[in-house]
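Raw record, unedited: Ig kappa chain V-IV region
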Amino acid sequence: MFSESGFIPGFFRPRPAGLGACADITMTQSPSSLAASVGEKITISCRASQSLYNSNSKKNYLYWYQQKPGQAPKLLIYWASTRHTGVPDRFTGSGSETDFTLTISSVQAEDLADYYCQQWYSFPPTVLQPPTITSSESLTICLLHAQPWSFTLPLLP
């Protein structure tokens, strides 16, 4: 069952889409790489192969997740632009239909993580192997192996 945010609670187990899951909607992210120092603004773009806008709910079913090393993915943004509870306001989601953006207005050291865009418009949900912020004198975002992935989400009772 979906919560108010449309997020299915459960455990994430990433699996390559080519191993048994095939989605009609494909997702692409750009740029392939960029660098930012602490305090700078960064932007990650995400494009869907078809519109994620639902005319009945009047919402875009695009979600952004952050995954820190050794941790489960954390929901940042749902419905393209709504921040999840507890997410700092430096994270902003925008866009509609096929083109979406995640902006971090002032990158902090604790933002070291993988960032995923994911569509929940159709099943199975698809997500790209994410841009990663890596730790060094500056924070670097690198696009790693851009390919569709799907999440298997066991529902909790």
